[in-house]
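[Q] Does anyone have a clean structure-token version of this?
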Amino acid sequence: MIHPSAAQIVRNIEATLAAVVEPAVQTTTARSALATIGHLLRHVALRIDQEGQILTDDIAMQTALLRDIAAYFATIGEGARADAIHAILADSAETDLPYPSLTIMGEQSARLGHAIQDALIELQQQRAARQPDPAYQAVRAAIRDYLAAQVVAEGALIHPAFEDKGPRR
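[A] Here you go.
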């Protein structure tokens, strides 16, 4: 492992700013800017530590959800929509790298997320006709569950970096 780690470097920068620079800062605007920099540095350190796993988990959840959505579309006779989702899944799974970068994983998660959004829009447009269908209700519930899990996962990167740490800009 490379020492110090990227997260350790970021935490050291934040600690140095707090210990050395903050006592010398005199204006409210400068103090506010420094507090914001501290929040963002903590956020970056958390992302370095946790983003890879969060993205890995998110991609797995999105993939499973999209498979379920595709299966639903196939059962209601919308094979073209199901095929489009399967194509997105196949495209997202292709990588020549043994360990994809966070950027690549983020882009993959975004592509899958857009496919979920597109499917949700289509399902919302079908609400009046399909509302009583238990399969429709199940796929909509699965999407809601995924979105709730996504908010919780993202909160793990936001809350500890910003909560109880002073003013934010």
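[Q] Thanks! Anything notable?
[A] Residues 72 and 134 are 11 Å apart (CA to CA).
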